[in-house]
Amino acid sequence: MVQLRLPKNSRVVKGKTHKAPEGALNVKTFQVYRWDPDDSENPRLDRYEIDLDSCGPMVLDALIKIKNEIDSTLTFRRSCREGVCGSCAMNINGKNMLACNQPLKDHLDRKGRITIRPLPYQPIIKDLVVDRTAFWEQYLRVKPWLIPPEDFPEKEFRMSPEEVEALNNAEKCIMCGACYASCQVVGLNKGYIGPHALLKAFQRVLDPRDSAPGERLNDVAGDDGVFRCHTIFNCIDACPKELNPTQAIETLRKLAQKRQAFEAHRRERQNSLIETTPTRSLEQSGG
Ligand code: SF4
Ligand code: FES
Predict the structure, then answer these.
(1) Does residue 23 sit in the same domain as residue 40?
(2) 109-123 burial, b if ≥16 CB within 10 A, otherwise e?
(3) Is the CB of 241 inside a 6 Å radius of any atom of ligand 1?
(4) Which end of the chain has the smaller Cβ count within 10 Å, N or C?
C-alpha cells in the first residue's frame, strides 16, 4: 500500500506558464494538474504552450512532448499507446478517457486550450498518477478468475456463439478504471465493489465454464454490491471500449433477486414440512 501525503486542501491554484518557443505558429495551451507529495504546496494547474506542428496527434503525444522537451518532472502513466493496456486513463476536459486514443483536435476548445487532470475519486500519488489500490482490491473481491468444474474436459472448453454473445463483450475490459472513477457511488462509498469488478462478476456468472455462479451471486448481492448501484450511467459514458457495466449490474441484480426468492421459498417449504410432519412418526423413524 502506497503511503500518501495528500494535498493540504483540494483548492487547485494557478501554476507556472511554460511559453512556446519563439516563432511557433500552431500554439495550443495544455493546462495540466500538478501535485508533488514532496513539497507542501497546494495542487496547481500548470500551463504548457505547445506548437502542434511538432507534436503527435493524440493527447498522450502532447504529454510525452511536455515530459521530454519542457518539464521532465511531469508524471503520468502510459505503456502501449494503442488503447490496450488501460494505463493512460485520465480526466480530459472533465471526462475520463484514454489519453492515447484521443485526438487532440477533438478536445481543444475555441481558445485552443485543453485541461488534463487525474482520474477522480482516488488518492493522488503525483500529478496525473492515482493510487489504484482500492480499485484492485474491489476487483479481487469478485474472484475474477475462472473456477472450473472438477470434471473438466480433456481438451478445451467449448462455448457456443450464443453463449459468447451473452457476455456482451465484457471480456474486452482493459481495466483502465475510467468507469470506476466516473461512478458517484464510488465517490460516496469506498466499500462499493464498483462497475469494473461487477462487470467481471457478470462475465463469470454467465460463463458456462464457471462452476460457482451461485456463490458469485451471493457475493455481489451484499450491501456493497449490485443493489448499491444507482443506475447513473456514468460508467457507460466513460468506457473507452463501449462496454455496458450498468446493464451487467442490472442482469446480476435480477439473477440475485431470483436466487434470493428461490432460497426464501425453499426455506419456507422446509419449515412448513417440519411443522406438518407428525412428531410420532419422526420418533418412530428415529428422527
Ligand atoms: S468497463 Fe470499460 S471503463 Fe471500466 S475498466 Fe473496463 S474498459 Fe475501463
Ligand atoms: S497507453 Fe495503453 S491504453 Fe493508453
Answers:
(1) yes
(2) eeeeebbbbbbbbbe
(3) yes
(4) N
